[in-house]
Design brief:
Layout (H helix, E strand, L loop, with lengths): L2 E6 L8 H14 L3 E7 L20 H12 L3 E4 H6 L5 H6 L11 E4 L1 H10 L2 E4 L1
Parallel strand pairs: 1-2, 1-5, 2-3, 3-4
Helix pairs in contact: 1-2
């Protein structure tokens, strides 16, 4: 059994990369491997915006990541600096910056690149999309 880190660099809907990351993550888990965490980086942080509202006939990728996290107890981690630069903020960051609203909520969390590096040290594989 291998340990994986999944890195998502692409936005939820402008390319198919995030969907492929989601499908690959499911396949890895269903094959009995471990996913230590899913790290959203660069434009991948747009996957964590709770205000994403896809059409009724499209997969709600935001909700799909949440369900996967809950089902397999996988941390969903945003690169904090990439998220803040793109206007994706948690309740904590909103309060620290004087905003009354936020658009990211648990199970998504914020962390630095150190979280990715630490995960890579523990993982057997890094898959980047």
């Amino acid at each position: 059994m291998s340990k994986f880190i999944i890195q998502v660099n692409s936005p939820a809907y402008s390319t198919s990369a995030s969907y492929r990351a989601y499908r690959c993550t499911k396949a890895v888990l269903e094959a009995g491997h471990d996913v230590l965490h899913i790290f959203f980086y660069q434009d991948g942080v747009f996957n964590t915006n709770q205000l994403n509202t896809p059409a009724n006939d499209e997969l709600d990728l935001h909700a799909a990541w949440q369900t996967l996290s809950e089902q397999y107890q996988i941390p969903l981690v945003n690169c904090a600096s990439a998220a803040l630069r793109r206007g994706v903020i948690s309740e904590t960051e909103a309060k620290e910056n004087g905003y009354s609203h936020w658009n990211m909520q648990p199970p998504f969390t914020m962390a630095g690149l150190g979280e990715l590096v630490t995960g890579i040290e523990k993982a057997d594989r890094l898959l980047s999309f």
